[in-house]
């Protein structure tokens, strides 16, 4: 009886799947856009349970046909532009029985999808695939329309005003790093080291919390003895992130897997930390309200959010913009987005500079010539940031993010009505049916030879796949950095919904580079003379080929060890 029930359900499911696929294909085929049929949609569950199996099959059987890798979530990382080249189109579909996904490496279409407006005059909505980010409550990333505008109004200005603190705190964090690196031998902890530095920056700039940088070994020792460590639980949360996507924290704590229990506990601790921060700020605002004096300190992100909720006693706010759960949700998103992406971008830039010491020298000369005989802690955002914004440091960040953006896909949906989208190179626009999901691909776009082959050079000479920061530098005599074809470079996305922390990240990157390279140089660890520079560089490049999306793009294995060595400053005459 049970077997019959099972068989009937399976047949019904298969019948429904085939019907659904047939219906979708009847809409996609007439468009004339290349498509591939893929058996499942990379939803949360399939990513957690099916994709590891698909990856295992690909590896075990050495499968090379593109049909196999299109089933993986982050195929763009390894394929880059090659699949578009192979099929001769900068857009193509993967059609699953439930959804048609349009992959986009065409800049004109990318601009329309990310910055254009749908029929109702609103931006194209984010795909539901990112709804998992609402782990602690709805937030800037998950909401749409008027609600999104409200979140952005509360958070945007205050993030914009925090740049001086970002500069100072980045240098303070770097100073601690240098003290440690100066004495240490080789290290292999760059990702975590920079995550701790950038966490300290967003904690200070966004929440007025001080988190001093300590080396990993000290951090681990502190975490073991400290009952409640913010960094410890944040780290556990990120390391076991997948679990938090499939079940609520109370259920995770009951599951018979250590990783699930750890993730559940970390979620609860994170919520309780953020709650404390919220209550502290509320108390401070209530005191300010009572004394009717000007706010007693700089308004940070948390303060702006609490004030906009009207939850503080004495608030005269008539239309609250955020609820308490949205404040917790936004705190999480700002801590997450505000430190991971920048930290990993800095780490990747450091590996590039270790691979290309000639660029390191250029960057150091730039720092020496701009700072003169000033120490880096005698600088400020107001006096020094602009001087670095069109030179080697800026070019290093741009080029690092061109080759390794923090995110490999930016997701959008078309909405309920058909819409027409332009295509680059004078191609005819395409009208797409409702239900289409867009996966706009920063990597494919930033390697598209139609837009990255330099004037007067061949594609090979333009070294599109290689680290060449000079491609961004102003022309001799000018001071404007190279501006690529609109839409062909989108590591921060574009338009009104582009990254709110772009300038924050640029200032942080610049200050950390200034602090580090004013004093130190980076080189590969030779493992006591057993590894040559070329071997280490090859190892580094090979590891970069295998990067995976773990919240942001990063190494899945071990990057080669690096060493920081004290340098002699150039005497500026
Ligand atoms: C190198 C560093 C960074 C990169 C590459 C980066 C990249 C991005 C991208 C591509 C998006 C758009 C995602 C989408 O539309 O689906 C985005 C959005 C966002 N980023 Fe960043 N980001 C960085 C740093 C930061 C920092 C430092 C903060 C906070 C201080 C931040 C906060 C956010 C937030 C809150 C959003 C959502 C904006 C909205 O939907 O209105 N990011 N970021």
TrEMBL record:
Entry similarity comment: Belongs to the cytochrome P450 family.
Entry annotated with the keyword Metal-binding: yes
Gene3D superfamilies, A to Z: Cytochrome P450
UniProt source species: Tuber borchii
Single GO term (MF): oxidoreductase activity, acting on paired donors, with incorporation or reduction of molecular oxygen
InterPro entries hit by this protein: Cyt_P450, Cyt_P450_CS, Cyt_P450_E_grp-I, Cyt_P450_sf, Cytochrome_P450_Monoox
Binding of heme, residues: 499
Entry cofactors: heme
Keywords for this protein: Heme, Iron, Metal-binding, Monooxygenase, Oxidoreductase
The protein, known as: Cytochrome P450
Keyword Coiled coil assigned: no
